[in-house]
Design brief:
Layout: H1 26-36, H2 47-54, H3 58-70, E1 74-76, E2 83-85, H4 91-99, H5 101-117, E3 120-127, E4 130-137, E5 152-154, H6 159-165, H7 170-179, H8 193-206, E6 209-212, E7 219-227, E8 233-242, H9 248-271
Antiparallel strand pairs: 1-2, 3-4, 3-8, 4-5, 6-7, 7-8
Helix pairs in contact: 1-3, 2-3, 5-9
């Protein structure tokens, strides 16, 4: 049944929370919460831990865990009774990597940039207050920090996040910054709202953003935004280099122009195509 076929009284109002809508499937939402509760800090959990991590009862945790195990997304250790994700769980996100038009469009350009600079080149897309790595071409040199696909990093203290924010309307950018938590990730992290807005204004003016050690100590990252035909940001590409081999200003001079050129090429490639109706 689609929304148009719902009786008028059952159609969701525009001003109500999604979870209060008659269309909201709370059981599905809870099941997804169980899957996403398994993270680096919680690689395996028993039923009480699953319940605590998701805010559901132990009996509900038991039903969800049993169902997800039966479907092949969780496995249970017969001795410890602890659950963990299976490789099948990767299929939940792999479909996005296969079908996202921006990944498809950007990958050839990122590959070429990677061949030219020999450093890690990545594409990230926004998700709430974070940027998610969706494509990666690793450095030809030793990689200091592992950055797997699907990794989410905060917008406010990453070059990709600030590059993305730089192409939002200034008021929308300020509102988003104000709404997001901004803890200090390292001693170098900028958390002050006014200072962040100044840094983003610089990125807007220069066409790219750069940071050093604000999320990972010893990491220098430069990023430029990918935009649609109307100039609205879709994501950002970045080059990441270690401070042990590069100085911040040295990296800006070496990679800034190529980064801007590549971001513009990726953006332009999408302006003449519908890209599946979404980008």
């Amino acid at each position: 049944m689609n929304q148009d076929s719902l009786p008028e009284d059952n159609r969701p109002a525009d001003n109500i929370a999604p979870e209060d809508s008659p269309l909201f499937a709370s059981t599905l939402a809870r099941g997804l919460e169980v899957i996403t509760a398994f993270r680096a800090g919680n690689p395996s959990m028993n039923l009480p831990e699953i319940a605590a991590a998701t805010g559901i009862t132990k009996s509900a945790a038991q039903r969800f865990a049993f169902t997800l195990e039966a479907l092949g997304y969780l496995r249970k250790d017969p001795h410890s009774k602890r659950y963990q994700l299976t490789p099948r769980a990767l299929s939940l996100g792999f479909g996005y990597l296969q079908t996202d038009s921006l990944i498809d469009r950007a990958s050839p350009y990122l590959h070429q940039l990677n061949r030219e600079c020999h450093e890690s080149c990545n594409l990230s897309e926004p998700d709430g207050h974070e940027m998610v790595f969706v494509a990666r071409f690793p450095s030809h040199n030793q990689v200091m920090i592992p950055m797997p696909l699907g990794l989410s990093l905060p917008m406010y203290c990453t070059a990709s996040g600030r590059a993305y924010l730089s192409r939002l309307e200034p008021q929308a950018c300020a509102d988003l910054l104000r709404a997001m938590p901004r803890p200090a990730q390292t001693h170098a992290t900028i958390t002050d709202l006014e200072t962040l807005q100044d840094k983003i204004a610089e990125a807007r003016s220069e066409g790219f953003s750069s940071i050093e050690g604000e999320y990972f100590l010893g990491d220098i990252s430069l990023a430029a935004p990918i935009v649609d035909a109307g100039g609205m940001p879709l994501g950002a590409i970045n080059i990441s280099v270690p401070a042990s081999r590069w100085g911040h200003e040295e990296a800006r001079k070496a990679f800034g122009p190529a980064l801007i050129h590549t971001a513009h090429a990726i953006s332009s490639a999408g302006w003449s195509q519908r890209a599946g109706g979404f980008r």
